[in-house]
Design goal:
Elements (H helix, E strand, L loop, with lengths): L5 E7 L13 E2 L2 E2 H9 L7 E6 L2 H9 L3 E4 L7 H9 L6 E4 L9 H13 L5 E7 L2 H5 L5 E4 L5 E5 L10 H7 E11 H9 L4 H6 L3 H6 L4 E5 L11 H15 L1
Parallel strand pairs: 1-4, 1-6, 4-5, 7-11
Antiparallel strand pairs: 2-3, 6-10, 7-10, 8-9, 8-10
Length: 249
């Protein structure tokens, strides 16, 4: 069997609503985007790392770090739309949407993410998750997942799921914290971006619910990884503290 080509795409939009210019902000001495690119480049499975951006300064930084660049329309609605725009004219079998605000990314996580799509052609997508704690359950900015017996996603929500008569410790055993990095089989990414946002995803504010609406099988890979995205300026200090601890070890 011919080896599949895996493209890693990092959407890096300048005009973030909550944190404008976020990809260029310095975190522990390096721009946020640099942390993400360097982490992605330690993957063994990615054939290319591509930065999808609408801003020349971001493009120049990406090129200086050895990443390919695709200039995309700033009006695109979602990161997945930017990913699809970046790969439309490139060959590739599996497309990885690497969140541009995850400076703690490690390449082996991308390898683990892609493996189910290499091994099982009936899987449309894969994503990552880790155990949820009480703070994750209470945090509406943290997406939660419940799984079926095959470790495939049943549902995603910002609320603790399932709702019911359970206390927090029972919830921790049932739902997991979603880490928002995705691998798509190329034809499914095209179908996903062709479908307009659905009422379900708009209600929760989670675009992965569009994939479930389309009937996708989403494999959830369980990892032991502390994820900390940079959504707002206050997150920079949190990430820097984690990086300092890593260095101390």
């Amino acid at each position: 069997m011919e080896k599949m080509k895996v493209l890693g795409v990092i959407p890096a939009r300048f005009g973030s609503t909550r944190f404008p210019g976020k990809p260029l902000v310095k975190i522990h001495g390096k721009p946020l985007l640099q942390w993400v690119i360097e982490g992605a480049k330690t993957s063994r499975i990615l054939s290319e790392v591509i930065v999808a951006t609408d801003h020349n300064d971001i493009a120049e930084l990406a090129k200086s770090l050895g990443a390919h660049v695709a200039m995309t329309d700033p009006g695109l609605a979602t990161g997945s739309d930017r990913v699809f725009a970046a790969i439309k004219n490139r060959s590739g079998d599996i497309i990885v949407n690497i969140q541009g605000d995850e400076p703690l990314l490690e390449g082996h996580l991308l390898d683990e993410l892609v493996e189910p799509l290499v091994q099982n052609f009936s899987i449309d997508m894969s994503t990552l998750a880790r155990s949820a704690d009480k703070e994750d359950l209470k945090n509406p900015n943290c997406a939660k997942i419940v799984l079926n017996q095959n470790s495939e996603a049943i549902y995603f929500s910002r609320l603790p799921i399932p709702y019911g008569r359970l206390d927090a410790s029972d919830h921790e055993a049932i739902c997991m914290k979603h880490i928002g990095i995705y691998a798509f089989r190329r034809p499914f990414l095209a179908a996903f971006c062709k479908q307009r946002p659905t009422p379900l995803e708009l209600a929760e504010g989670l675009e992965q619910l569009r994939a479930l609406y389309l009937g996708a099988r989403i494999k959830v890979v369980k990892v032991d990884h502390i994820s900390q995205g940079v959504d707002v300026p206050e997150d920079v200090e949190t990430v820097e503290a984690i990086l300092r601890k890593r260095e101390a070890k």
